[in-house]
Amino acid sequence: MVDLKGQYNQIKDVVNPSIQEVIENAAFINGPKVHEFQKNLEDYLGVKHVIPCANGTDALQIAMMGLGLKPGDEVITADFTFAATVEVIALLNLTPVLVDVNPDDFNINIEAIERAITPKTKAIVPVHLFGQCANMEGIMSLAKKHNLYVIEDNAQAIGANYTYKNGKKLKSGTIGHVASTSFFPSKNLGCYGDGGAIFTNDDDLAHTIRGIVNHGMYKRYHHDVVGVNSRLDSIQAAVLNAKLPHLDDYNKARQSAARKYNEAFKNIKGITIPKLSNGCENGICEQCDCHVFHQYTLKLEGIDRDALVAHLNENDIPCGVYYPIPLHKQKAYADSRYNEDHFKVTNTLVKTVISLPMHTELDDDQIDYIVSKVKSFINA
Average pLDDT in the 248-266 region? Predict the structure, then answer.
């Protein structure tokens, strides 16, 4: 699904000496490379504060801890996403409230959010799924109306732009009260191990979070808040520093691959190509920057998804099903309050979506081969 070795070969002349520098100066934890990466990412995103941490799941948990959410507080998030989003809500003894998503862009549905708000609701966690932003203008308006926090889960969309109705653009992860991201190796900006970060423009919140990631300390052996041990190590920061200047080019390569996929699949019966939230027609124009295609995901109708997966695997083509089981049906997060009629879209998507290889090193021959095998299955 990704070609990390091919990507590494393009930047190893920068990565290798950067890692060696960390080894030689032995500043493995919270060293100069971490501070350098923090500043560079702040500049790239246009956000006041980036707080690096150990992984994306920690980032989301720490963001909630920083907001001071209390046990029993309700947090609304999407049913169609990876479990980490709801996992941290449950770990903090908050109450997860799962809602349905849009059938076209797979992101959290605004009307479903509004229906789910109760006096106990304290936050909304929109997940920018597969590489494009949820409807942040609508979500922020809803949050303001009900006095709620917005915590962006930006693990899949770093580098994407969100365009407001008036044309203003902001980077994903810089719109809500706080955001989290993951630097897992397969992400659009990934390191060579685990890593994550929290973003915010709130000075006080940033100060609180900086203590939380380091055992609640602002001064050594003085624990002012309840914290965790979650720090980005310097070797991973060195890798991320080497990759960050290439992020826009990486995302453009993904967008280019998506355009080629779109052109190949747009008129095939039973296949729906990715829909863009900003209304671009039938694919992505050269100027579009709203979707960075962490995944390239098709919807199938009248096509045996599982048989197609087997067919692709038999032809040495990896593919993914994100996500095969809705969160509301997972044993850990099942709740008698949920009504199946409220999850019609998610319950359909889990049976019909398939994600094809998507990464920065995809070339035309690979795309042509993948497309040909999909078509041969459909036409068999």
Answer: 96
Q: What is the mean pLDDT of residues 212-225?
A: 96
- Residues 13 and 11: their CA atoms lie apart, in Å, by 5
Angle between helices 56-66 and 84-91 (to 10 degrees): 40
Q: Summarize the confidence of residues 75-85 as an average pLDDT.
A: 98
Q: 187 CB contacts (<8 Å, ≥6 apart)?
A: 155, 156, 158, 181, 294
Give CA–CA dist 125/179, Å, rounded: 9
Q: What is the radius of gyration, based on Cα positions, of the chain?
A: 21
Q: What does each C-alpha distance from 257 to 61, 169, 356 come to in angstroms?
A: 34, 24, 11
Residue 269, classified by CB atoms within 10 Å of its CB into exposed (0-12), middle (13-18) or buried (19+), is exposed
Cβ 261 vs Cβ 296: under 8 Å: yes
Question: Tell me: the pLDDT tens digits for 153-165?
Answer: 999 999 999 999 9
Q: How high is the pLDDT of residue 285?
A: 55
Where do we find the tokens 């040909």?
Answer: 372
Q: Is the pLDDT of residue 339 over 90?
A: yes
Q: What's at 244, amino acid-wise?
A: L
Q: How many whole angstroms separate alpha carbon 227 and alpha carbon 7?
A: 36
Q: Which domains, ranges and CATH numbers included, belong to the chain?
A: 4-245 (3.40.640.10), 247-379 (3.90.1150.10)
**Residue 293 confidence class, pLDDT cut points 50, 70, 90:** very high
CA count, 13 A, side-chain hemisphere, 200: 24
With CA atoms as reference, report the closest residue to 234 among 12, 14, 33, 8.
33
| Residue 282 pLDDT > 70 | no
Verdict on whether the full-model pTM lies above 0.70: yes
